[in-house]
From TrEMBL:
This is Zinc finger BED domain-containing protein 4-like. PROSITE patterns: ZF_BED. Residues 73-86 have a biased composition (Polar residues). It is found in: Nucleus. The keyword Secreted does not apply.
């Protein structure tokens, strides 16, 4: 019998102890019984390979022999890397990236589980103490990124800031300041600060954090504009002396309104007297949509049906099974108005018979017509919001064309949502029309080679052209862009033919005027092309305009970069959830957001 069990395959089967040449073998890993010949084990071996490929086929004794050297190797003391060892330094940087990237508690380095993990994976790594990790490794990375940001600020033509507040738990709030600049004709978005605003987040506290951030990077002379959300306390901070040299006290907090998200917001008019400050255009667009939906009871009732259907599908196992082959329904998201639009699309895409079979209030034929009309009305708003909240793309130049496109779109009559359209038109005039008169957005549109003057009437075009000529005439060309410009020789006074002096002289166009004329007369580039790539390729043809473009095209149309920063923080946005102190949270957020700089 011992010879019969010589093959290791027999260790995985129960084999009867008899003398029969052909018998039944039962697998120890599954209920299968199969016939086999004691002289041939190929069918048993094939069964193991097909059904239990993960099970090793070595004998237990041979496995034990193989483990002995491994166990002895693990118990052998390993020499630790020194602090100057390149492998130690690389591992330290990776650990900082891990903790900052996931906003993990810094106590991780003291965890026994982390120590056991490192002993298994790389016992030579010298795990830093918590004090060394916080006061040395984190500080070194923070200093490295801070210096890199200072270099960017110094080399940038201009810097635009976005400022926003985000409420946390226990009445805490966090203020984020992001910067936007064009470096080598590429738009860079960076985080300058993310600080906790303790106590009441008043205008004074916002101003204090703003001034500290600007001073830390010595960039007060570089700031082209500040874009901020429409919260009343942020608006009041703009009115305080010292926010920017051009700030004036002019604000009426009585215009504060409630946003779709439930935050306290104020009407954009509080910033009208602040030339260097712009309220968030995307937020104003949300106010327009909110006003429209409030005024149309019929539309909101149908949207409530849609929300009920989506909730039922997501909560009911029967409904989910019934619709498993249908398009996925859009989950409700109370913080974004366009979630209603996406839900309406997803519900209408479901087969009507299957939708009617659900245990919910059915959509009538008229409901479907109202929804289709609603989608047609709101799609341009969705497109505008998506474009102006793009990441690392030029958006300031799209503000005025977007407003004019929305106004033109709303002139089309609506058969089923006329109240909605009327309210949207009225709210557009209230919240968005003021942006059409904002100089930064006008200049950004003209300096966008995709647009230039194409969205303006003749009288507006003439005025904006004169404005561009004035800007170009006073702009100093960077030394690396300077070319030898032709200057006509001075006219000599004629003694023989004095009457020639009364004739009109030939007008030689100035270099800056030639530059502006040439730029405006050339056709616009296709919309899908990058305007910054155009200016990079034409910086020597248009040395003045290319620098002006860097000044105005870095302005974002919304405070989305700051909001995106908060959303990517996830649960780590609240330091109390991860036991992070304010200082550690701010440092980790700074490293997380700016890790792409090195």
């Amino acid at each position: 019998m011992s010879k019969r069990r010589a093959s290791v395959i027999f260790e995985h089967f129960d084999i009867p102890d008899n003398a029969q040449a052909v018998c039944k073998a039962k697998c120890k890993h599954c209920p299968v019984e199969m016939s086999f010949n004691r002289k041939a084990t190929s069918n048993l071996l094939n069964h193991m390979k097909r059904k239990h490929a993960a099970v090793p086929l070595e004998s237990t004794s041979s496995q034990a022999k193989q483990r002995k050297p491994l166990l002895s190797a693990l118990t052998t003391p390993t020499e630790k890397w020194s602090s100057t060892d390149p492998r130690q330094m690389q591992a330290d940087r990776a650990l900082v990236s891990l903790v900052a990237g996931k906003l993990l508690p810094v106590s991780l380095v003291q965890s026994s589980l982390f120590y056991a993990f490192m002993q298994e994976t790389q016992p030579a790594y010298n795990i830093p103490s918590r004090q060394h990790f916080v006061h040395s490794l984190l500080r070194e990375q923070h200093t490295l990124l801070h210096n890199k940001l200072q270099e960017h600020v110094k080399s940038a033509q201009s810097v635009c800031l976005t400022v926003a507040l985000r409420s946390g738990k226990k009445a805490s709030a966090y203020m984020g300041v992001t910067g936007h600049m064009i470096i080598n004709y590429a738009l860079k978005t960076v985080l300058f600060a993310c600080k906790r605003v303790k106590g009441k987040h008043t205008a004074d506290s916002i101003l204090k954090h703003y001034e500290q951030t600007v001073a830390a990077y010595n960039m007060s002379s570089k700031i082209a504009s500040v874009v901020m959300d429409n919260t009343s306390n942020v608006g009041q901070a703009c009115d305080l002396p010292g926010f920017l040299p051009q700030a004036q006290a002019s604000q009426d907090s009585s215009d504060s309104e409630s946003d779709l998200d439930g935050d306290s917001v104020s009407d954009d008019s509080l910033l009208e007297s602040l030339p260097q400050h712009e309220s968030c255009f995307a937020h104003s667009l949300q106010l327009v949509v909110r006003d429209g939906l409030k005024s149309s009871t019929q539309t909101t009732k149908v949207l409530a049906k849609v929300s009920s259907i989506v909730a039922h599908i997501r909560e009911s196992t029967t409904a989910t099974d019934l619709l498993e082959e249908q398009p996925k329904t859009q989950a409700a998201n109370a913080t974004r108005w366009n979630s209603q639009l996406k839900r309406a699309r997803s519900v209408l895409s479901i087969d009507k018979e299957k939708l009617d079979s659900l245990d919910t209030a059915p959509l009538t034929a008229r409901d479907r017509l109202i929804l289709k009309d609603f989608i047609s009305i709101m799609t341009p708003f969705e497109e505008v919001e998506d474009r102006i909240q793009g990441d690392r793309v030029v958006t300031a130049s799209l503000v005025i064309p977007s407003i004019r496109g929305i106004k033109r779109h709303l002139r089309s009559p609506s058969e089923y949502n006329s109240k909605l359209v009327t309210a949207l038109m009225s709210s557009t005039e209230k919240h968005l029309s003021k942006y059409e008169d904002r100089t930064p957005y006008q200049r950004a549109a003209v300096l966008d080679p995709r647009l230039k003057l194409c969205c303006y009437e003749s009288d507006q075009s003439s005025r904006l052209k004169e404005d561009l000529l004035t800007l170009a005439s006073t702009f100093t060309i960077d030394s690396h862009l300077q070319v030898e410009e032709y200057s006509p020789p001075p006219c000599k006074k004629s003694c023989i033919f004095p009457f020639f002096e009364d004739e009109p002289q030939v007008d030689v166009t100035s270099p800056h005027a030639q530059e502006v004329e040439t730029y405006l007369q050339e056709p616009c580039i296709p919309y899908n092309q990058d305007p910054l790539a155009f200016w990079k390729g034409n910086q020597y043809r248009f040395p003045r305009l290319s620098q002006l473009a860097q000044h105005y095209l870095c302005i974002p149309a919304s405070s989305a970069p700051v909001q995106r920063l908060f959303s990517t923080a996830g649960k780590g946005f609240h330091p109390e959830r991860t036991r992070l102190s304010d200082s550690n949270f701010e440092t980790l957020m700074f490293i997380k957001a700016n890790s792409g700089l090195v």
